[in-house]
C-alpha cells in the first residue's frame, strides 16, 4: 500500500475517533438532566430563576469538531424588588464549546449567540436597576449560593471566558419610575463582544434603533472596547454616534417634550451627535462631542416654521447609567442658522429620569420677529413685524413636560426691532379716540402702527414677559415706559407718549389681552374744550 494511502487511512480513522468522542461528550449536554444542571448552575450563579426549553446539538458543527448546543425559550428572572417577572427572555441561545475540555467533563464556552432577546430595564425603590443587580452578580468572583448549598459539577464546570459573544435582533424596554409612564423601547439591537473574559479588555460593537423603528434612521452605534469588568466596575472607551430623525419621534412624545415646536419637523430633518467617550458605566462616561443639525423645521404647523441647522462643538457626559442615569449635553460656542438669521451662543441640556432642565445664553440677529414668534408660540404670530436683534440673553428652564418647562422659564435679554409694524392697533388713533371719548377707557382703534425702532430690556419670570426701558420711535409719535405680557395673553403697559412736534408727555395705559386691547390716555386736569382742541391740533400735526 502506498505511503500516502496509509496517511489518508490514518487521518480518516483519527477523525472518526474524534467524531465519536465529540458525540459521546456532547450527548451529556443534550439530555434533560444536563439542561437542568446548567440552568440550576446559572440560577445559583446569578441569584435569580433561570429556565430553558428544548436543548439541541448542532450536527453540522460536530463534523467541524466544534461542538455547539442551543437552548430554546430562555428566561432569566428579575431580582427581588422589581415589577417585571423576567429581566431577559430569548427565542434561542446557541453556544459553541471547546472539544477537549468536554472529554474531561468541563464546559468551556467559546462563543454565544443570543437570538431575539427582550431585556426589561426598571428601577427599584432604592433607584437601583435590575441591570445593575444582574451585572454585579455576573461579575462577582465566585458563585453566589447559600453556605448550606454544596458545589456541583455544573458549578465548577461552567466557564465564562468567551471568545465571541453576539446578540441579534434584540429589544430593550425601559420602564419609567411609575407604572403609569409609558416605556421607552430600543429595537433591532446588535451586539458583538470579542474576547469576553475576566481581567482583560474586550472589543465591542453595538447598534440599535430608537422609537421602535427597525427600518428607521433614529438609533445609536458604538465601537470601542470595554473592561476589565469587576463587581462595580465597567470601563468603556469608544466612539458613540446618536442619530435622531424628529419625524420618527412618536407624536405624543413630541407634543409632551417639545410643545408646538416639532409637529412638522420635516422628512429630512436629522440631529446627529458624535461622542468620543471614556469612563466607567457605573460612575461617569464623558468626552468631547460634535453636534450636527440638518433641515430641522421648528414651528406649530407647515405654514409657520423656521429652519434650524448647523454644527457645533459640545461636551457629553452620562452618570450612573446602571442606577440613576443622568445625561448632560453642553453645547459650546455654537453658530446655527435660525430662519434667515443666526443664533450664536451656548446651551446646556440635562436629562435625569423623566425630568429635563437646562439653560442657554447668547445672541440672535437678523431674524424676522413675526417668523420667530409664529414658530415659537401657539397663535402663529401676526402681531408684530420687523427685524429683531437680541445682542445678549440668558435663560433657564426645568420640568417634565413642555408646559412645565415653559412655566419655569426664567431669564433676561436686551432686544431691538427695526423697520417694523405693530398690527394690533393704530396707536395714534387709539389715543385720540380715548381723549375725545371723555371715558376712562376705550377699545383700541383697529389698524396698524409703523415704527422705525423699538428697544427694550426683557425679564422672564412667573409666566410673564416683563419689559422695561421701552423706547418706541415712529414718524408720528414716540413713547417710553414699562409693561408686561403674560403667557395667558394678558398685558398691561404704562407709557408716556409724545406726539411729533410736541414736548409734552401724555400718560397712556394699555391693558386687556393680546386679542382685545384697551387704551386709556390721561390728560389730567386738561379736560376743557380748548385743551381738547389743542390736543386735536397736535394729533393732526402728528399725522
Notes on the protein architecture:
By secondary structure, the chain is an alpha+beta fold. It folds into 3 domains: about 20-145 and about 150-235, no CATH class; about 235-400, no CATH class; about 425-540, no CATH class. Helix content is about 20%, strand content about 50%. It has 11 helices and 26 strands. It has a 26-stranded mixed beta sheet that branches. A hairpin with a 3-residue loop joins strand 22 and strand 23. Helix 10 runs antiparallel to helix 11 (about 530-540).
Q: Give the overall shape, derived from the CA principal axes.
A: elongated
Largest sheet: 26 strands, mixed
Strand segment count: 26
Mean pLDDT: 79
Structural class: alpha+beta
Q: Portion of residues in helices?
A: 10-25%
Binned strand content: over 45%
Parts with pLDDT < 50 across at least 5 consecutive residues: 3-22, 59-65, 142-160, 525-531
Number of domains: 3
- State the end-to-end CA separation: 124 Å
Radius of gyration: 35 Å
Question: Helix tally?
Answer: 11
List descriptors.
543 residues, 3 domains, 11 helices, 26 strands, elongated
List the helices and strands and how they pair.
Elements: H1 3-27, H2 32-46, E1 50-51, E2 55-57, H3 59-63, E3 68-77, E4 86-97, H4 99-103, E5 107-121, H5 130-139, H6 153-157, E6 158-159, E7 162-174, E8 184-196, E9 202-210, E10 219-226, E11 235-244, H7 251-258, E12 270-280, E13 284-301, E14 304-319, E15 326-338, E16 341-352, E17 355-368, H8 369-376, E18 384-399, H9 402-408, E19 410-422, H10 427-437, E20 442-443, E21 449-461, E22 464-473, E23 477-486, E24 490-499, E25 506-513, E26 517-521, H11 529-542
Parallel strand pairs: 5-6, 5-7
Antiparallel strand pairs: 1-3, 2-3, 3-4, 4-5, 7-8, 8-9, 9-10, 10-11, 11-12, 12-13, 13-14, 14-15, 15-16, 16-17, 17-18, 18-19, 19-21, 20-26, 21-22, 22-23, 23-24, 24-25, 25-26
Helix pairs in contact: 10-11
